[in-house]
Amino acid sequence: MHSSNASANFRPSDMPACRLAWRRSRWLLAALVALAMTAACAPWLSSLPNAACAALDAAVLAYLGWLLWREGRRAAVELAWVGTAPGWEAIGADGSRRLRHVAARIRGGLALLTVEDPVSGRRQRYLWWPDTLSAHDRRALRLVAASARKEPTGGARA
Predict the structure, then answer these.
(1) Taking Cα atoms as reference points, which of 38, 36, 22 lies closest to residue 66?
(2) For residues 8 and 62, which has the higher predicted lDDT (pLDDT)?
């Protein structure tokens, strides 16, 4: 009997490929600057000597510079869910490489995808802020994460 409900005929193989574009978030850079400025003010509100406060400020500003440099030089990449082991394919300016799905977490407007390079074993984390991931793409990532959790091989580790 044919069902009039479209979801009754849905098979996991019918799921469209998930393609997510990752790029640097201006919100993340602004949050790092705000956090560093707060950290730079904190020693001055304590009873530390002025020399110690100045040294801590210099360390905070140096670390902020390094963080901004590191985040600023990360190249944009497109992640495509291929569904088979290892799971993801990262397509960037330097070519493409396969990545194994480890975990995906979505909390409100933030989405975090953790993947692992099966050759080197290096883990990479891709964090999407609300300014870089649409609601539609966030839902697609949530569906992929749910299907990866159910796979016996190449699935997510908790």
Answers:
(1) 36
(2) 62
